[in-house]
Structures are given as structure tokens and as C-alpha cells.
Amino acid sequence: MISTIAPSFNSPVSATSLRPKNEEPPAPPTPPSPPPDQVDFSVIDTAAKAAALPAMDPAVQLGLAAGIAAVIMSGMGGGSIPLITLDVATKTAGQDGNLSFGLDMQNEQSPVTVSGDFAGQAVNGGLVINEQTEEIGWVGTIGGNEERISFLGVNEETMTAQVGVQFGSVAGTLNLKPIMDESGENPLGYNVSGDLGGEAYDVTTTWKLPEGLQNGDEPPQKLEATISSTGSLGGQSIQKDYKVEAQMTGGGLMVNVTGGGNVAGIAQEVNGTLAIVP
């Protein structure tokens, strides 16, 4: 009977049995590529990009402040001007950067300079002091973007310094205020608040030092501390944490800062080394 020699339509027929012997099986479909985890810093046009720049990073801010303080203290003690450098390596949204800051207080017009690159963009600039106009500020470039920070004045009653900032097309006004302990003599950190690109910016940076230093004791040969920054930009959070290791050497003082976190949705890692050589 015909039914005994014809294949049943209900019996399974594998794709292998129907494929010519020399034909390879079709390749599986290529999955779509994931979106790139990068932020384009060739154009600084958002408050989040501005907040992730080196000038807004606590490790850079505190590194430069410590270097300048070392110069002032050595001058007050009548000693020689130390050689001070600050090298910073960053990874921002997966993009590497390397910056080199130099402090030369004998250069009265531009005592602090920077060169290097950040997230694929060349960086140049420095602190500029104009004695004739009594203006002080930071002037530089990141790629094709202007970077300008202008000191606007100090409110002596609240001990708050005000600065105007311009990063690419992002402008703003920020207030810097120290956070003191109950005695009002020892700083515990500082707060930066104001407007950045039309969004509210409010970040508090605090540090935790060994207890002896808080009481004014002589610093040890090796010191470990932590720094934490917490705040927000508009409706997005900012959180960064750092570990600090300072070591006295025969050639001077070396301070290493390692850490990072998230800046308004932009992941960032920072590694900085401050060297002070008498």
C-alpha cells in the first residue's frame, strides 16, 4: 500500500537530513552591539560632564591646596621653596587620562600649571594672577573647550568664597565653605554649592584623619586617611571615596590618593601622587 512506503507528515524530519552533505549550518545571528560606555568630552555641554572634570575632583582640589600650603609654610619658616608636583591618572566613563600639575611660586603670574590629557582631550592651563586688576583665577582648555574659574570674593562673616566657572558651554556660580569642628579651629572638610549649568550643585567633602592629628600632635612618618564626597547635581547623586597614604621619605613627602565613584551617572577612578621635595 502507498501508506507503507510514503513518509508520514507527522514523523519528524531533521534539518540535517534535508541539508546537502557539503553545506555548513548557518551561523547564528550576531547579537546587537551594546551601546558604548563612553561620554564625549570633546564637547562639554552638560552639567554632568562639567562636574566630572578634574577641576571639580576633590583629589585634585585638595592636592593643589596641600601643595600651596606647603609653599606658604616653608616661606613663613624662612626655608627654601620646595619642589612640588601633582600627577593625576583618571579613568572617566572608561577613558584614560593623565595630568601633570607643577607648582612654582617664584612664577608670580602663573604659579600653578597643568598639561596632559583627559578622556581623550588635550589639557593645558594654569592659575593666573593679575596684580594690576587684582584678579586671580584658573584659565585653560580641555580639547576645544574653554575652562575658566574666576575668584569673585569672600564673605568674611560666613567664611564663604565665591567663584564663577565656565566649562565649555556650561557656566555657573559656586560657593566654597569650610566645615569646622566644634572648637572652630580644626577643619573637617568643605562644602561646594550653587549653580552649575542651570542645575543645583551641592557636594560635601570630609576627611577622617588619625586621632592624634586632630589634636595637633606631630604627624607620624606614615599616615593613612580617608576622604569622602557626597552630594547631588540636579536629581542625580554624586559619591566618591578615596584612600590617602602619606609617607615621609629622605627626599621629602609623598602622598598617594586612590579612589573614585560616580558623578551624576558618570563612573570615575582617580589616582593621584603629590610629591613635596625640600
Order of helices and strands: HHHEEEEEEEEEEHEEEE
Q: What's the shape?
A: globular
Number of strands: 14
Task: Label the structural class.
Answer: mainly beta
Q: Strand order, main sheet: write it out.
A: 1-2-3-4-5-6-7-8-9-10-11-12-13-14
- Gyration radius from CA atoms, angstroms: 28 Å
Textual characterization of the structure:
This protein is mainly beta and 278 residues long. Helices cover 12% and strands 52% of the residues. The chain is built from 4 helices and 14 strands. It has helices at 15-18, 47-51, 58-76, 211-214; strands spanning 83-92, 95-103, 112-118, 121-130, 135-142, 145-155, 160-167, 170-180, 187-196, 199-208, 222-233, 236-249, 252-263, 266-277.
Short summary of the structure?
It contains 4 helices and 14 strands. It has helices at 15-18, 47-51, 58-76, 211-214; strands at residues 83-92, 95-103, 112-118, 121-130, 135-142, 145-155, 160-167, 170-180, 187-196, 199-208, 222-233, 236-249, 252-263, 266-277. Residues 1-18 and 31-36 have low confidence and may be disordered.
Question: Key terms for this structure?
Answer:
single chain, 278 residues, mainly beta, 14-stranded antiparallel β-barrel, 4 helices, 52% strand, globular
Topology of this structure?
Layout: H1 15-18, H2 47-51, H3 58-76, E1 83-92, E2 95-103, E3 112-118, E4 121-130, E5 135-142, E6 145-155, E7 160-167, E8 170-180, E9 187-196, E10 199-208, H4 211-214, E11 222-233, E12 236-249, E13 252-263, E14 266-277
Antiparallel strand pairs: 1-2, 1-14, 2-3, 3-4, 4-5, 5-6, 6-7, 7-8, 8-9, 9-10, 10-11, 11-12, 12-13, 13-14
